[in-house]
From TrEMBL, chain A:
Coiled-coil portions: none
Originating organism: Elysia marginata
A GO CC term attached to the entry: mitochondrion
Name this protein carries in UniProt: 28S ribosomal protein S24, mitochondrial
Subcellular location: Mitochondrion
A Pfam family recorded for this sequence: MRP-S24
TrEMBL record, chain B:
InterPro entries: Ribosomal_mS35_mit, Ribosomal_mS35_mt
Pfam family, one: MRP-S28
Highest taxon of the lineage: Eukaryota
Record's protein name: 28S ribosomal protein S35, mitochondrial
GO molecular function per UniProt: structural constituent of ribosome
PANTHER family the UniProt entry points to: MITOCHONDRIAL 28S RIBOSOMAL PROTEIN S28, SMALL RIBOSOMAL SUBUNIT PROTEIN MS35
Annotated stretches, region: Disordered: 76-95
GO CC annotation terms, alphabetical: mitochondrial small ribosomal subunit
Biological processes per GO annotation: mitochondrial translation
Small ribosomal subunit protein mS35 mitochondrial conserved domain span: 201-269
Record keywords, A-Z: Ribonucleoprotein, Ribosomal protein
Length: 167, 371
């Protein structure tokens, strides 16, 4: 058996031995990894709302904030509590208005009142269901947060009305 | 028809035998077929005859070829889609009262706002067909606060509603000076408004009072002692004293406490303790000419000059009595010199004090005759 044949037979094992993992010390150029920027589909079929279409880098230039409160001002308190409550509100509304929430939830705090504004798509929901869910949401959140919660929602006929661009 | 009835009768008899029920009439059968069976069941021979042909009359399923028959599926009637009524702004009269439409602060509502408004940014024609998003389904307009509840009509209405609560501005307090004269004590407290379920804020308990020191009745000693007692609470530039406290849990308690402080410091400053008699030159708050070496030097110099003028030879050990010294001090040029020196030390060196000092020295030493 020649040496060539031996090498040929042991090639799989040889390949295995050649795998090595080094340590890269250079900084990673993550130029294609962006938060909040959706990826483009091959045929540009993915619909985006205005909120989704504007990247976070344009925040407060082309689109406004989704939370309005005093906690993040200088020397003000309750920043952590407010953030957590906002998170909870968004989670709760996503589940409660499942499939009908056409937009993000805008959370405004005026004194001890919590005002939630969002758009509801009327495709899969009846007006009386909207009224019920509105009261239900207000009641549940008021009980949890110990502050009056007011919902100022608006309806859109279809989710398609929210499309700003397609990527 | 007859065979059919026979067949049904046979099936029913089987059921009856299975359930072991003899009384057929108890089966309250109301169908046409059942009644026909009962009719047949009265003569038992028919039933017996059917038993013989049971094997041939067995039911078998018909094989249905898929797609041969047209399938008719009963579709549920579609729910009539209710169209939303047209937005409210289309039916608004032009002379309506806007305060009724938008009474309080509220999120922007496209259907109730009668003017066209757009918000958003469109980069190119691929976005929203190149048009800035309109007010319908526009979340951007719902984000920011609006002032649709604070139009001039609203403000007028508010003012009209609360007018009966307001009183006339008191006479004699038109200017700030008048206010300060009648109310020299200024108390400063703060309330904090923030977004949260509670109204409490521990910063709100801070209370302070501010007043001018000149508004208090104090003599020279009392004023000096007052300033020494309050320390850096006294601002010499504005002549104001500021007492503040947040040591008590409530704002009202803190306010009471700072008022107590003022009272205590005021009466304390009027007292003269025995140890205050031993006030040395280094304890003086300002330059006092009468206590300083300058006075002695000046008086000695003047006395020597006078003695020289009189032709006296022995002026080396000149001793002035108290009366003589006081007489010299009462002289106009000495008083002027005293003031000039005190100003020079207390107010600092500047062109005015230096010029005054120069003039005083010239007059004191008679260097320059009045031209």
């Amino acid at each position: 058996m020649s040496l060539h044949q031996v090498l040929f037979r042991t090639q799989p094992m040889g390949c295995f031995l050649h795998i090595s993992r080094g340590i890269s010390l250079s900084a990673t150029l993550a130029k294609n990894r962006k938060s909040g920027v959706p990826k483009i589909t091959p045929f540009r079929t993915k619909p985006l709302t205005y909120e989704e279409a504007i990247p976070p880098s344009r925040m407060n230039v082309r689109k406004g904030w989704l939370s309005f409160n005093t906690s993040n001002l200088h020397e003000e308190k309750r920043a952590g509590e407010t953030t957590f409550e906002d998170f909870l509100v968004r989670r709760f509304l996503t589940g409660t208005w499942h499939g009908s929430l056409a937009s993000e939830v805008v959370i405004k705090r005026r004194h001890n009142m919590l005002v939630l504004s969002f758009l509801v798509s009327m495709e899969r929901i009846l007006p009386r269901q909207v009224y019920f869910l509105q009261g239900y949401t207000e009641r549940m959140l008021s009980g949890w947060f110990k502050m009056p919660v007011k919902i100022e929602l608006q309806t859109v006929a279809s989710q398609k009305d929210m499309i700003f661009k397609k990527i | 028809m007859a065979t059919f009835n026979l067949y049904r009768a046979f099936r029913f008899s089987l059921n009856v035998s299975k359930s072991k029920t003899k009384d057929i009439e108890l089966k309250s059968c109301r169908s046409l077929h059942m009644s026909s069976f009962l009719r047949n069941a009265e003569n038992g021979d028919v039933v017996n005859a059917t038993e013989e042909t049971s094997a041939e009359a067995e039911e078998f399923r018909v094989f249905e070829i898929e797609g041969l028959k047209k399938a008719v599926s009963a579709r549920r009637a579609e729910r009539a889609t209710k169209r939303a009524p047209p937005p409210r702004y289309r039916s608004m009269p032009t002379d309506q009262d806007w305060t009724d439409v938008w009474p309080t602060a509220s999120t922007f509502k496209w259907s109730a706002v009668p003017f066209p408004v757009r918000q958003g940014f469109v980069e190119n024609s691929s976005e929203n067909e190149g048009v800035i998003p309109s007010k319908y389904a526009n979340l951007e307009l719902m984000k920011g606060p609006n002032f649709l509840h604070l139009t001039p009509a609203h403000v007028k209405k508010h003012c009209k509603a609360i007018k009966h609560l307001s009183t006339k501005w008191p006479e004699g307090l038109e200017t700030d000076e008048q206010c300060h004269k009648h109310f020299p004590l200024e108390s400063i407290t703060s309330d904090y408004v923030f977004a949260g379920p509670s109204l409490e804020d521990d910063r709100a308990r801070l209370a302070s009072i501010k007043f001018k020191l000149s508004d208090l009745e104090l003599d020279y000693h009392a004023k000096d002692k007052f300033i020494r007692l309050v320390g850096d609470r006294y601002n010499a530039d504005t002549d104001e004293v500021l007492f503040e406290s947040n040591r008590c849990p409530l704002k009202s308690q803190n306010l009471e406490y700072v008022k107590f402080l003022l009272t205590a410091v005021y009466f304390e400053s009027w007292k003269t303790e025995t140890w205050e008699q031993g006030k040395q030159l280094s304890d003086m708050e300002t330059y006092v000419w009468d206590m300083n070496k300058s006075r002695e030097t000046c008086l000695t110099l003047l006395a020597t000059m006078r003695a020289k003028d009189k032709g006296s030879e022995s002026v080396g050990d000149l001793k002035l009595s108290g009366a003589e010294a006081r007489a010299i001090c009462d002289l106009a040029e000495v008083r002027e010199y005293k003031t000039a020196v005190e100003n020079l030390f207390n107010d600092g060196e500047n062109s005015e004090t230096l010029d005054a000092y120069k003039a005083a020295v010239e007059r004191l030493l008679q260097l320059k005759t009045a031209a």
